[in-house]
What does this fold into?
Amino acid sequence: MPHFYTEPKVSVLSRPSFAEPSHLPVQWNGESTDGERLSEFAGRLCYMSQKNPANRTTRDYLENIKKQGHGSVLEHANYSLLFEGISRSLTHELVRHRAGFAYSQLSQRYVDESDAAFVIPPAIIGDDALVAQWKAQVEAAQATYISLVDKLMERYAWVADKVHRRKMAREAARGVLPNSTETKIVVTANVRAWRTMLELRSGEGAEQEIRRLAVMVLRTLQGEAPGFFSDFEVYTAEDRVESARISYHKV
It folds into this structure.
C-alpha cells in the first residue's frame, strides 16, 4: 500500500551567513539574524550611514525598508528550503515563480515510482467516501505504472545499457501517474522573491494545497528572520482555511 500525505514537510537547508567588513562597521542595535544584518548593511552602504544616526534596531530598519518599498536590499539574503509531501500538481504552480528562484526536483525519469507516495487533496480530507474513491484511482494508476515499466523493460531488452533502458521505461510509464503523486523539491530564493510568492500563494484565492504550503513556509521564514516577514498576518479565511495577508505589497 502506498503512503499518503495529508500535509507537507518543510526543512531549512541553508540560511545567510554575514561577515561584516572590519573597515565598514555598522552600529547594530537590537536582536537580528545574519540575513537581516546583511540586508541592513547593504542598505546602509548606499548612503554610508553605518553609524546608524537614527539609532534604529535592525528590525526597525527593515520595517522602514519594507514600508518605503526599497526591496532591492532584500535580494541579498537567500534561504534554501526542502519541500516534501507535496504533489506534482503543486509544483506545476510553484515553478511559475521564476525571478529570484532556483529549483531542483525529483526526476520521474530516473526515480522508480513503484512505491511512490501520494498527496491527498486538502479539499477531500475528512470525507471518507471521497478519500476512498480517490485512493482507488491513484492505487490503480500506480499498479498500471508498475505493469508498464515491467513490459517496457522487456520491450527494450535489446538496449544494452540497463540504466538507459530503465530510464526509457520509466519516462514512458510515468504518463499514467496522477498529479497527486508526491514529489520532493529544493527551492532557493531571495527574500524579495519569497515575499512575492508568499503574498500570492497564501492568499484566499490560491489553491488549497499550495496555500497550505505557503502558510507553512511563511511561519518557517518568520522563525528564521522575523524582520523580513513581520508584516504578514495569518488568519482563518471565510472558507475555514488558513490564509495570510501582507501590509507592504510587492516590496
Remarks:
- The first helix runs from residue 34 to 47.
